[in-house]
Amino acid sequence: MVAKILDGKKLANKILKNLKKEIELLGAKPKLVIIQIGKNEASEVYIKRKINASKKIGIICEVLNFEQSVSQSLLEEKIQQLNSDSTVNGIIIQLPVPEHLDILKLQAMIDPKKDVDGFGPINLGNMFLGRNLLLPATPAGVLKLLEEYKLELEGKIALVIGRSNIVGKPLSILLLQKNATVILAHSKTKDLDKLCKLADFVFVAVGKPNFLSGSKIKKGAVVIDIGINKIKVGNAEKIVGDVDFQSAFRVAYYISPVPGGVGPLTVASLLENTLLAYKIQKGLISR
Ligand SMILES: NC(=O)c1ccc[n+]([C@@H]2O[C@H](COP(=O)([O-])OP(=O)(O)OC[C@H]3O[C@@H](n4cnc5c(N)ncnc54)[C@H](OP(=O)(O)O)[C@@H]3O)[C@@H](O)[C@H]2O)c1
Predict the structure, then answer these.
(1) What is the mean pLDDT of the segment spanning 272-278?
(2) How many domains does the chain have?
């Protein structure tokens, strides 16, 4: 048996195409502002992808660059300005940020109607209560992928490995909403191998290449690889996920590749949120 591929790139292109049409129909010019602090190679790549996808579909994407040493107070002032700028529909802070900054405070300051990463306490709290609106982009993208391939979660055991505020925790809540029985594992989890063998769905967001191999997975499980890791192969560099694709491919029922799986859907979901935020702000949708 070999796994079927969950083609995130294809789905993301379909979502972007639909967004483009909707933006044209509305005659809208939604604007996304990305706050970038310092220089980080991975962030540069992610920002470029957001800019390119925005351009394709008619979203204005502006990047505000700040020095690595920027103060908390300057960023708070800037966020307040952006909150009251009616031409700005979405605001995100590109992660990671330098350690001297209180990122949770900065995220909480973003107007919930402009919080298109969905990381602020109001949007996360609403999601926790089942009032989904501006959802964190990566977990939302994962759910879209499962829906596209009609993979039913109800009554299934879903193991999420990794409990970050941006991926693992919100994903576990969304899976619960779909009536999965959710196990949220982390670095202190005991007997992870046993849990893996139980799981019908495994979602891996750990940040370690080859963290999960095929031998650990239950035969016929759905494997969603959220990790994005850069590794060296000889003199070249390569992007891989957290799953050892070659071995998992022979055991899983469905598997998401890296690249081309969850990554493109994160960008598409972010831009979908930006249009949604625009519509909320224009009173086209009520919160
Ligand atoms: N596809 C996308 O669009 C996208 C978006 C965001 C992130 N990512 C990628 O996803 C990965 C995770 O990102 P993140 O921001 O969620 O990472 P993170 O904040 O570093 O969290 C990693 C999580 O993995 C857990 N962990 C570490 N070692 C473990 C082990 N041996 N066993 C079980 N759990 C372990 C940690 O547990 P503790 O909490 O106990 O420390 C933590 O909860 C990264 O590769 C990142 O690049 C991809």
Answers:
(1) 98
(2) 2
| Amino acid making up residue 90 | G
Ligand 1 atom nearest the C-alpha of 267 is 3
Backbone angles phi, psi at 50, to 5 degrees: -65, -40
How many angstroms separate the alpha carbon of residue 166 from the centre of ligand 1?
9
Q: Are strands 254-255 and 222-225 parallel, antiparallel or unpaired?
A: parallel
Q: Is residue 164 part of a domain?
A: yes
Beta strands in 71-133 (DSSP E): 90-93
Say yes or no: CB of residue 87 within 6 Å of ligand 1.
no
Q: Whole-angstrom Cα distance, residue 275 to residue 265? A: 15
Q: Whose CA is nearest to atom 10 of ligand 1?
A: 227
Ligand 1 atom 41: the closest Cα is on which residue?
Answer: 187
Side chain identity at residue 218, one-letter code: K
Average pLDDT score over residue span 122-148 = 98
189 lines ligand 1 (CB under 6 A): yes
Among positive and negative, which fits the CA dihedral 239, 241, 243, 247?
A: negative
Q: Is residue 148 domain-resident?
A: yes
Pairing label, strands 254-255, 4-5:
parallel
160 and 98 share one domain? no
In a domain, 124, yes or no: no
Per residue, the 3-state secondary structure of 141-188, as one string, reads: HHHHHHHHCCCCCCCCEEEEECCCCCCHHHHHHHHHHCCCEEEEECCC
* Neighbouring residues of 226: CB distance < 8 A, sequence distance ≥ 6: 138, 142, 162, 167, 203, 204, 205, 241, 242, 262
Give per-residue pLDDT as tens, 201-212. 999 999 999 999
Total-model pTM: 0.97
State whether the beta carbon of 241 lies less than 6 angstroms from ligand 1.
no
Is the residue at 102 inside a domain?
yes
Domain assignment of residue 172, given as a range: 136-263
pLDDT in tens, 18-37: 999 999 999 999 999 999 99
